[in-house]
Amino acid sequence: MIRKGTCVGVRDRSGKELCVGDLVRVSDGASQLEGVVCYDRGRTEFYIDAAVPVRLGDIPAARLSLVNRNAPKMFELALSAQSACNLGAVVHSLDAIVDHLQAVAWDSSKGTDWINQHPAVRLICEQLSYLSGGRTYDEAYAICRVHAPEYLAADSSEPPLDSQDYAAISDPEFKLTPPEAADGSTT
Description:
Blueprint: E1 7-11, E2 17-19, E3 23-27, E4 32-40, E5 45-49, E6 54-55, E7 64-68, H1 74-80, H2 87-108, H3 112-116, H4 119-131, H5 137-146, H6 149-154, H7 163-167
Antiparallel strand pairs: 1-2, 3-4, 3-7, 4-5, 5-6
């Protein structure tokens, strides 16, 4: 299994071997891109998760530089994610930031609230919210409730489905008709 810290067999321009989780910079002279080295299980290849993901094998070593191995530049990563259009890339950035914050929290006895409320986490979460927008929280929650009846049946803290759940869904792709009750009415 490929994990954070696994070396990927690629070196940067100074000869340092890159590992999963490293924050790297790709530069072509005119522009540069920063991202985290990741592994795609589906394609079995390494890539740099940035605003535009790049296959690591496609980048000459002369254009690669290790930015930070032990502590990602989370503020820069959070800022660079603000122009991202790839939800998956932003999630990987959040993962790298939270990994770093958890290590800091462990070493300094800071709690979960400190991680959850960290400015870099907030900024990444805002971008995730922006990219996944288009529907309200209530509609997204209703869609998930209607499409997960087994979960609702197993979780006694969730109220049963009713006509309001179905009415809250305006997106035709996810709209379902409420089932009829034994008496012919809808639930």
